[in-house]
DNA sequence: AACTAATCGAGACGGTACGTCAGGTCTTCTG
DNA sequence: CAGAAGACCTGACGTACCGTCTCGATTAGTT
């Protein structure tokens, strides 16, 4: 297996990224944006507040990001690039248990407003900005989705999942119900619920 | 004493609803709100614009609705109360075919910006306003969800679905993936996709 | 010719002046503008500062005045309409003494920054805005100029001034040197200077 | 004794003026400043615009001039040092005719926005900046004023003007009314007006 | 001829103010 | 007397410049 550990640079380019750009300001802005989204909620998240919290001129934000959503997006990107490396979903050999574990962790995250509120804010922006949505799909959703697919693929190869399963559909079958319930608040987001979702998705609705 | 003919159905009061209230203004406001959400998108949907389009003073909106989201909510409520009665989901006896039919219809609706944009707008407001979310869950989601449950229940009683199935989880398993994909734009919303979702949900992920 | 004593109302119209307009805000704005011009000087006179000092929204200023200069102009107008009535220049019968008296009073005013600074500010705006200049000429300069002409006319009728004198030119001959020296600071503005100006203007440069 | 041929005239140093300084940039800046003042008017005259027009970095301006007014001042200084040498006011022996000639030329200059607008801009800066005013008085006004005094002195010596005349007051009596009327736009600036001013100033206001 | 230090064009930075838009409250006038 | 009209204060928007501060790249004048 080739070494190729880590990828030399392309980690965070995305934007023109002039050599003159202040990395300190960039991090301060992204951190402030994430924090404020968590503290004030989406409604009161303003560029002015981000600039003030970050100790930065407004123009410095407008110079590098086209919209408030793009800032938030980069904030998530920055966080997601911290402790990743090549993380993997747990694999104990029991796909049902593993999926339950992962979803339970997600439920816990969503219970923390400091994480959930920024996620709601970003989700909202995505819902209304197709361009941002494309970026999101490519840079945030896809990497995570690949991890999910990978775990399912292993179960599939172990003969635990149907051989002809469309893994993208399978991922949606597991995570879609949870995310939809969480975002639209159509019901409580509990581990009992996610356990039921996993069981139901694996077994299918039909009478056996 | 007059028979009080007007409102036998407390379906839509919710708010004080003074006798003096102008029904014409109310309808104009709700119609304007829905149209503007469809035309301008969520970003440019302002109370001022709604008031202007409806030919109404701003105060008339603030008098009767607490937030922009509440207006939008009532606009959906008004629409949903038009041709409802006690509609039902189709029942040909083939639960898989029926679910595919229903989801295909949804896909079509979501392709129409005049419907999809207001829905995105409302979804956004719900995502950020728990109170509105509760209203939504009770007054808009629940009635529709009951129709869905009813259809699934019939299939269950016909022995097509598992006897111990949690129907709420089942509803989420069918509609959750679609709504999540649509709202977050993590992939194209097509009938091919919804067909696959229905098949997968019914059959389950496991190898048979 | 009927008495027509002065025009019944036009005290402060000038602008559309809706009936809804808040007189309190108007006065607060004009007062704040005048004071700030005196305290901070022209450079730091900003609409934002005026609004803040007046306890008023910026929009309330922009709603009623097109430019900063127009605010300043109205501030002067307000002041000039306070204690005027039909003031007159002093008339002791000695035109030279009277003119010296008047100019000495002007010198004193110009020595007070609270008066001189706003005047410099207004002068600047006038110098760069022909429209404002026209307003100034008509509503602020002309009334005062008429007082000056009136005094000179009396002296003329008393045979103290040349019968064929162009009174407008005469006014400029008296007040022009002073104002020019003051505004462009080409020399100290003292009563000795104004006395000399009056003497020279009356006597003429020529050898007798 | 060394030749020291370089600077016999300390006419224009004023500033440190390092040997390293780029003369090309200096001229480009002053020219751009003057042109922009004429084209855009005072309001839109910004250091950024000057730098852009001159093809120069902003710092190059800030390095050598303390304020925008100082740049404008030097621009005038540069122009005034071109075709001067030891110019003189015309002397035909007829002081009245000569003064009228000079003022008519001034009227013409003031009619050209490319000259008048920068002058208004500079005048404005002077009005609000005592330091700049002192420079102006010394380096731009005084040399011209000396020419004026010189012409009047000759007339005085020829017995045409009063022997005890204060020449500075006399200069103000001739030029003050014109400049004041021009800057504050209290009336049209015409040759008819300047002729009248000259006649009135020479003859005096008094009845003969 | 190589060094070196000031100056140059460029432009990012933290800020202030601009003039506009909308939010939500309050007041006035009209049907 | 409810409702349209809209003025009001507030606060955020996105832009223009401010004056300061790096960045390499010239470009003198030493060495």
From TrEMBL, chains A, B, C, D:
Q: Which residues form the HTH tetR-type domain?
A: 23-83
Leader sequence range is none
Stretch list, region Disordered: 1-23
DNA-binding region extent: 46-65
Provide this UniProt record's keywords sorted from A to Z: DNA-binding, Transcription, Transcription regulation
Q: Which PROSITE patterns match?
A: HTH_TETR_2 (PS50977)
Q: Where is the composition biased (Pro residues)?
A: 1-13
Against Pfam families, the record matches this protein to: TetR_C_11 (PF16859), TetR_N (PF00440)
Concerning InterPro entries, the annotation shows: Homeodomain-like_sf, HTH-type_TetR-like_transc_reg, HTH_TetR, Tet_transcr_reg_TetR-rel_C_sf, TetR_C
Query: What protein is this chain from?
Result: TetR/AcrR family transcriptional regulator
Q: Which organism is it from?
A: Yinghuangia aomiensis
């Amino acid at each position: 297996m080739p070494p190729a550990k880590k990828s030399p640079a392309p980690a965070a380019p995305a934007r023109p990224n002039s050599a003159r750009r202040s990395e300190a300001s960039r991090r301060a802005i992204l951190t402030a944006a994430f924090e404020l989204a968590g503290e004030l909620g989406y409604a009161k998240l303003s560029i002015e507040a981000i600039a003030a919290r970050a100790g930065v001129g407004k123009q410095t934000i407008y110079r590098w990001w086209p919209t408030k959503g793009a800032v938030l997006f980069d904030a998530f990107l920055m966080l997601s690039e911290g402790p990743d490396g090549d993380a993997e979903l747990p694999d104990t050999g029991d796909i049902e248990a593993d999926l339950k574990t992962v979803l339970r962790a997600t439920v816990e995250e969503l219970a923390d407003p400091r994480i959930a509120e920024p996620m709601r804010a970003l989700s909202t922006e995505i819902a209304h900005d197709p361009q941002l949505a494309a970026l999101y799909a490519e840079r945030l959703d896809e990497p995570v989705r690949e991890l999910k697919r990978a775990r399912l693929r292993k179960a599939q190869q172990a003969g635990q999942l149907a051989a002809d399963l469309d893994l993208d559909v399978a991922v949606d079958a597991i995570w879609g119900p949870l995310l939809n319930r969480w975002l639209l608040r159509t019901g409580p987001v509990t581990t009992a619920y996610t356990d039921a979702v996993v069981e139901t998705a694996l077994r299918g609705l039909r009478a056996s």
